[in-house]
């Protein structure tokens, strides 16, 4: 058994080819793929012009190899895919010596996710800001993941078609979960128009740690606010697939906090709405260690 080092064009590739012999996965510097192969198979792989097609990056050009490597058969590859993409194997969870409860004790609060959903212009970012400020003043640590902002970085490869929105929400849900694990009160404010996607994020967290806040503001109110002029563009047909205009928004059925637009200025003040969320957190014990 020998090791083959082959340069791959993509960074951080961890190669895993079950059936090719032993533990074929090694952590290596980016752009190197290391394989342990039985000597008799080495030639086939080394001669393959599209080697990294079998290196967990791109499986489309590997058909000719499947005869030699049954582990790469179509059925097997299907089993190794998640959401149509190939899934890494042989990854093992490492426990940390400091646990979530230690961090929560340190911070004197409990990690959770405040998920603010609603139409564009419903006031998600405003309430997220008011909430983080009010909690900060009480000595509580928050971090806000705003849909618009995350789309400038982590999610800059995503558009607004439905499968991209789903991926946007999934990634933000996973990041929010990490923040909650740190012990931080993570405020995620994004339209997140599909119930199924929000429920999927809820299911990532322990019971109670996902607090869904619905900005229940009628479309005509959001449209009259239109701070970015996007509704106007959508009505003019210049933006396609705009939520509430020609793309769906599915309101929550059972959210933890409902912030309903009543038209009454005093109860609809962002600061007052933030206090409603804080009361909820206080009652549930999230503001103590
Ligand atoms: N087609 C379309 N539909 C809805 N919104 C659009 C669209 N194109 C751009 N924008 C702007 O992007 C912001 C929404 O991003 P999100 O990440 O929150 O959306 S989603 O959760 O993936 O649906 C949203 O920000 P907010 O107004 O703060 O909600 C818009 O400013
Ligand atoms: N509670 C509120 N009452 C009145 N206007 C509000 C309220 N919350 C937000 N706004 C205004 O509505 C507009 C959209 O708010 P924003 O927080 O950007 O919404 P979203 O993040 O949902 O798009 C802004 O001009 C903001 O000042």
TrEMBL record:
Catalyzed reaction equations = adenosine 5'-phosphosulfate + ATP = 3'-phosphoadenylyl sulfate + ADP + H(+)
Annotated EC = 2.7.1.25
Task: Give residue ranges for domain APS kinase.
Answer: 110-259
Q: Any idea which UniProt keywords this protein has?
A: ATP-binding, Kinase, Nucleotide-binding, Transferase
* InterPro entries tied to this protein: APS (IPR002891), APS_kinase_dom (IPR059117), P-loop_NTPase (IPR027417)
CDD domains reported in the protein's UniProt record: APSK
Question: Which pathway does it serve?
Answer: Sulfur metabolism; hydrogen sulfide biosynthesis; sulfite from sulfate: step 2/3
Alphabetized Pfam families for the sequence: APS_kinase (PF01583)
Functional note: Catalyzes the synthesis of activated sulfate.
Return the similarity comment.
Belongs to the APS kinase family.
Tell me what this protein is called: Adenylyl-sulfate kinase
């Amino acid at each position: 058994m020998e090791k083959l080092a082959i340069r791959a064009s993509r960074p951080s590739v961890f190669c895993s080819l079950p059936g090719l012999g032993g533990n074929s996965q090694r952590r290596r510097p980016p752009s190197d793929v290391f394989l342990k192969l039985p000597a008799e198979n080495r030639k086939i792989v080394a001669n393959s012009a599209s080697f990294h097609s079998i290196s967990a990056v791109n499986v489309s050009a590997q058909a000719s190899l499947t005869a030699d490597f049954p582990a790469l058969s179509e059925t097997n590859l299907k089993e190794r895919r998640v959401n149509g993409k190939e899934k890494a194997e042989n990854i093992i969870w490492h426990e940390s010596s400091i646990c979530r409860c230690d961090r929560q004790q340190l911070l004197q609060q409990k990690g959770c996710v405040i998920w603010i959903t609603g139409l564009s212009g419903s006031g998600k970012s405003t309430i997220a800001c008011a909430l983080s400020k009010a909690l900060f003043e009480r000595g509580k640590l928050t971090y806000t993941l705003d849909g618009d902002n995350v789309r400038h970085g982590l999610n800059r490869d995503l558009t607004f078609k439905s499968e991209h929105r789903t991926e946007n929400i999934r990634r933000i849900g996973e990041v929010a979960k990490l923040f909650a694990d740190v012990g931080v009160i993570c405020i995620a404010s994004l339209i997140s128009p599909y119930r199924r996607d929000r429920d999927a994020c809820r299911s990532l967290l322990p019971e109670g740690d996902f607090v869904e806040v619905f900005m229940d503001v009628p479309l005509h109110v959001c449209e009259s606010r239109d701070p970015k002029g996007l509704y106007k563009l959508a009505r003019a047909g210049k933006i396609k697939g705009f939520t509430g205009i020609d793309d769906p928004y599915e309101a929550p059925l059972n959210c933890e906090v409902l912030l309903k637009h009543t038209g009454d200025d005093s109860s609809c003040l962002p600061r007052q709405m933030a206090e409603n969320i804080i009361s909820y957190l206080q009652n549930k014990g999230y503001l103590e260690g």
